[in-house]
Amino acid sequence: MQDVLLDVQDLVVHFRVYGGYLKVLDGVTLQVRHQERVGLVGETGCGKTTTMKTIMGILPKPPGVVRGGRILFKGRDVLSMRPQELEHLRRSGISMIFQDPTAALNPVFTVGEQLEDAIRYALGKRDHASVREVALSALQSVALPDPPRILESYPVQLSGGMRQRVCIALALACPKELLIADEPGTSLDVTIQDQILRLIHRLAEERKMAVILISHSLGVIREWTERVYVMYAGTIVEEAKTGELFARPLHPYTEALMRCVPKLTGTGIAEGIPGRIPDYFDPPSGCRFHPRCPHCMDICRQRKPQLFPVDGDHRVACFLFGRDSHG
Ligand code: SF4
């Protein structure tokens, strides 16, 4: 793939627990081009946030252990970066909107101290008035009322929704090359969430910034992304251009996920996916989806399918669509 900004290759991450390891990521491979808007979908617990935290260099170790794979950002290996290099990467290369705002805000500093520190580092501005101006405008852009008061507040003095908007302001205050938005605004009401997505879209265009949008809402992914990765139980099972994926979902899991969307036409209640995400302590052999798959074959229990190209950029990890050289 030409013009690649982020290249994740065969990433394997386990978590140490009493009595063994949870084998959460099982060879995640994905790429993001410069200025591209990429979606990542999958059920809760499928490893989306673990993948993003590993990319950001904030996977808690222990219990997290990177067992294999590479993460290249602009050709540089993130997994071998020293702590200062990772800090620089987070302050000037990649920012992340966290699903949980408490993970991003330090409770002992005011919002203003945290926001102004990030702006000073990224923009190199020493003049207090101009830094404060950027901070105020960042808070305004996420529809927070009374930004001067918010700047003086500690996170604990704000509601959960306000803290989430502060996190979004923190992530968007300064230009970065890649924004990872993990369920941005899901705890906010739909009008604010829509406003946040429009803001991300506008800033991505203005700043020529790439975006990875993680969302459980297929509608959000369909509207705001150009290409989509579908993740199941720690592995990518399908990737395609957004229009192509929604028009022609191929992997049995993607098909099932699409059937879960509630029908606004009132023609029936959405179907669920029988079974549940596997136990990562002892995941299924071969294709991790096989215990839930209506098309399961013998080979599915024995071998893990690779991503087979189907049509152009459309690739699917399923033996219904191809066999590798050993299959
Ligand atoms: Fe189903 Fe086999 Fe395809 Fe897995 S590889 S999704 S079990 S048909």
Topology:
Elements lengths: L3 E14 L2 E14 L3 E5 L6 H9 L7 E10 L2 E2 L5 H10 L1 E4 L13 H13 L4 H14 L5 H6 L7 H13 L5 E5 L7 H18 L2 E5 L3 H7 L2 E6 L2 E7 H6 L4 H8 L38 H5 L5 E4 L2 E3 L11
Parallel strand pairs: 3-8, 3-9, 6-7, 7-8
Antiparallel strand pairs: 1-2, 1-4, 4-5, 9-10, 10-12, 11-12
Helix pairs in contact: 3-4, 4-6
The structure holds iron/sulfur cluster.
Family: Belongs to the ABC transporter superfamily.
Keywords: ATP-binding, Cell inner membrane, Cell membrane, Membrane, Nucleotide-binding, Translocase, Transport
Membrane topology: Peripheral membrane protein
Task: Outline the low-pLDDT stretches.
Answer: none
Distance between the termini: 25 Å
Bound molecules: iron/sulfur cluster
Proportion of residues in helical segments: 25-40%
Write down the domain tally: 1
CATH-derived topology:
Rossmann fold
Average of pLDDT: 90
Topology as a string of helices (H) and strands (E): EEEHEEHEHHHHEHEHEEHHHEE
Rg, rounded, reads 21 Å
Spatial ordering of strands, largest sheet: 6-7-8-3-9-10-12-11
GO molecular function, one term: ATP hydrolysis activity
Main location: membrane
InterPro entries: AAA+_ATPase (IPR003593), ABC_Ni/Peptide_Import (IPR050388), ABC_transporter-like_ATP-bd (IPR003439), ABC_transporter-like_CS (IPR017871), Oligopep_ABC_C (IPR013563), P-loop_NTPase (IPR027417)
Protein name: ABC transporter ATP-binding protein
